[in-house]
UniProtKB/TrEMBL annotation:
Domain F-box: 14-65
InterPro entries on file: F-box-like_dom_sf, F-box_AtFBL13-like, F-box_dom, F-box_plant, LRR_dom_sf, LRR_FXL15/At3g58940/PEG3-like
Protein known as: F-box domain-containing protein
UniProt xrefs under SUPFAM superfamilies: F-box domain, RNI-like
A matching Pfam family: F-box
Superkingdom classification of source: Eukaryota
Length: 281
């Protein structure tokens, strides 16, 4: 027998979690990686648009890969997933309500996937304010020449995306002699640059300048010499793993330089490092 005196719970189609205020739901989703955050959109109608309202977007290809089975097919699948999530979330944003405070993209330089990501990011930058934008770009093997050319094709296809970046991290790329200066010339908002295992061929001199860059890291890059001609806002530099017989690094206009970190394995032909600055420093 049913007890009619027992109060019935009203079925409103949503659970209690879904009835929380929007800002609390966004705080919950913000603690998830982007893959799990995207999955919450299927919970109910209330959740459908929440991932696209996040002010911090960290989309990392490693969140989509199986670390115990990271073969070529898995990398292809993960890269496609990154493209799909990026286009979905950036394409569904409410332009009237939300600024993107932090947009961090980590992806692998494969075929046309980066160009799709770049166009989606460029559209977001054109239609709303993006305060901090970061690209971290990996390669899935060590053919520096092929991936250097592939990166420059990506760069040439997406100048607006690179023009809006504030942080850029590059690995395992061989550039043409003028490629890095051209990248810096386009990335006018850049304040952080990290080059890891990058070069421009053997015995090449990298001559660069930038008006906004405040942090620079050059790690295990095979440049004969790096000349920092004009970096008026540079505060910190990390320089590790050079092979040069001569002085590997020179400074021009670096009036605000505060921290210099030099790390290398000492070999018999290396000279003693001596610091010398011009009278304007």
């Amino acid at each position: 027998m049913v007890n009619d005196s027992c109060p019935k719970q009203e079925d409103n189609g949503d659970d209690r979690l879904s009835n929380l205020p929007e800002h609390i739901l966004l705080t919950i989703i913000d603690r998830l990686d982007i893959r799990e955050a995207a999955r919450t959109s299927v919970l109910s109608g209330r959740w459908r648009h929440l991932p696209a309202m996040l002010s911090r977007l960290v989309i990392n290809v490693w969140d989509f890969l199986d670390p115990f089975n990271c073969n070529n097919d898995e990398i292809v699948r993960g890269s496609k997933a990154v493209v799909k999530v990026t286009k979905s979330i950036l394409g569904r944003r409410d332009l009237s309500r939300n600024t993107i405070q932090f947009l961090c993209m980590t992806f692998i330089l494969r075929e046309d996937d980066p160009i799709s990501i770049g166009h989606a990011v460029a559209h977001a930058m054109a239609t709303q304010k993006v305060e901090i934008a970061e690209f971290t770009i990996f390669c899935d093997d060590d053919d520096l020449v092929i991936y250097g050319r592939r990166f420059m094709l990506f760069f040439d296809a997406c100048p607006n995306a690179f023009g809006g970046l504030t942080r850029l991290n590059l690995e395992n790329l061989r550039f043409g002699e003028s490629d890095i200066p051209n990248v810096l010339n386009t990335c006018k908002r850049l304040n952080h640059l990290r080059l890891f295992y990058c070069d421009s061929g053997s015995c090449t001199v990298l001559k660069v300048e930038h008006a906004q860059l405040s942090e620079l890291a050059i790690v295990n890059c095979s440049f004969e010499r790096v000349e920092l001609n004009s970096f008026p806002k540079l505060i910190r530099i990390i320089f590790e793993g050079w092979i040069s017989f001569e002085d590997p690094l020179s400074f021009g206009d670096v009036l605000l330089l505060d921290t210099v970190s030099l790390t290398n394995v000492s070999l018999s032909w290396h000279k003693m490092i001596k610091f010398g600055f011009n009278q304007n420093v």
